[in-house]
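SDR family oxidoreductase
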Amino acid sequence: MSVAIVIGGSAGIGQAAAVALARQGRGVILTYRGHPEGAAEAVASIEAEGGQAVALPFDVGDSASFPAFAERVRAVLAETWQTDRIDALVNNAGIGEVALLGEITDEHYDRLSRVLLKGPLLLTQALLPLIPDGAAIVNTTSSSTHATGATPGYSVYAAMKGGLVVLTRYLAKELAPRGIRVNSVSPGVTRTRLGGDAFEKYPELIAPQAARTALGRIGEPADVGDVIAFLTTDQARWITGQDIEASGGWDL
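Tokens:
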């Protein structure tokens, strides 16, 4: 049985990716931190379509917990799917916090670093013994790393996501001898819970963002989740070390 793990799979892009991976016939482990109801919703959606999923609590910003989490994943794999391997890892957990240069603090920098860059690196390391040759890893990055469309206040966020783009290339190089492909997906403006569920609270923000998108709307989670799921398949077997933009033509 092929099993995927989606870190940050309780809402938005992560939830959509978990559902898309399950539709490929995979078992899915998805994690949540502060949104257990979203995790339950994702599991229910997968099970309603005949799939199988398990939701686990996890904080990607707490690297000291990673060895214990890896053992918990190992136990779930054995109990639920009678396997000891993960064929696809999606590093999607994220936070979005805005701070202009004069407002950046050590705490702000460290918090974003722990979740957006340090977390994916050390978690991939912790889970690597469960990842077999020929598997796929996908990291969620951001169009904020691109030369166009820089938005004041997102300097630390974009810097960490940019670091993840570079890390993706290096992991692809290091893991290539094992046939493990590593790519990242760079969403544009997408309707998610980041930023305190901003689009739900402030729907007037949607039209200006849609106007900057060539295809004329903001992204939906499935627009990006489907790309993530595709990159784990054999159809994407010749793609590695790439940052794939899935933005509908943001600032094109």
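The chain has a mean pLDDT of 94.
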